[in-house]
């Protein structure tokens, strides 16, 4: 039986890859950024890819393009909700109703309400359910016909992803995928890759690092960061961390850059993709910064597959 899904705010398509690995058929990916949309099209050639602002996308257009689908997935931008953003709105409800980027969550809800899939799954940072936001989301989903929603907080490392990552998956079905009970370290995740090169695997070109940063990186101990930046409330966040080879990697963000545990250089895009559980044949297109961003802003495919298998049980 055909089990179809489409993907809003699709990025390069890590979330979609997990669903395809579980046996679903992806029919549409939508993103307003050309570079990740190109990556989505390259990695999901059977699906239609739209470069479109979801806030301007008509549900009738989607229905005309793909017909009925069982599942809608999506990852609205997290910047309005993450504590790493020093400019996020102080009032949590303003992040949802005032911030124009934060309001994209409401457009996900709008489309889900119009098309009435059997299952929907919306991914974001835990800040999405901070304070009164959880009740607000319950009201919004109830208004479009989904009176029961679940706020599933899952850790990627529980599903064989080699990096820490805590995210909330809002859905109309409970998501309690069985854990893999295995910790994959940085060393294990990077094992078998050749030195950085311009041939194979893709996205494994050596990143440029100024000599002065190489010298400073050489002095770092495993787990230490070269720089820190301020997030919401003045909290400091580390970046350019020298990875500990025997531990999980820290959370991979779009802005994350990591130093190799044994070499005084930054990880390649391919190595960071390994830390998120991507297979080596998954291609990231666009500029280098965009490629890192596509990796860091995605749902790790092994976690996405575990979620998809739960959705399949329900269906």
Automatic annotation (TrEMBL):
Q: Which InterPro entries match?
A: C5-Methyltransferase, C5_MeTfrase, SAM-dependent_MTases_sf
GO BP, sorted A to Z: methylation; negative regulation of gene expression via chromosomal CpG island methylation
Keyword Transferase carried by entry:
yes
Q: What is its EC number?
A: 2.1.1.37
Is Nucleotide-binding tagged as a keyword?
A: no
Q: Which UniProt keywords apply?
A: Methyltransferase, S-adenosyl-L-methionine, Transferase
**What molecular function does GO assign, one term?**
DNA binding
Q: Which Gene3D superfamilies match?
A: DNA Methylase, subunit A, domain 2 (3.90.120.10), Vaccinia Virus protein VP39 (3.40.50.150)
Q: Which PANTHER family match?
A: CYTOSINE-SPECIFIC METHYLTRANSFERASE (PTHR10629), DNA (CYTOSINE-5)-METHYLTRANSFERASE 1 (PTHR10629:SF52)
Query: What family classification does the UniProt entry report for this protein?
Result: Belongs to the class I-like SAM-binding methyltransferase superfamily. C5-methyltransferase family.
Protein's recorded name: DNA (cytosine-5-)-methyltransferase
Q: Which organism is it from?
A: Ignicoccus hospitalis (strain KIN4/I / DSM 18386 / JCM 14125)
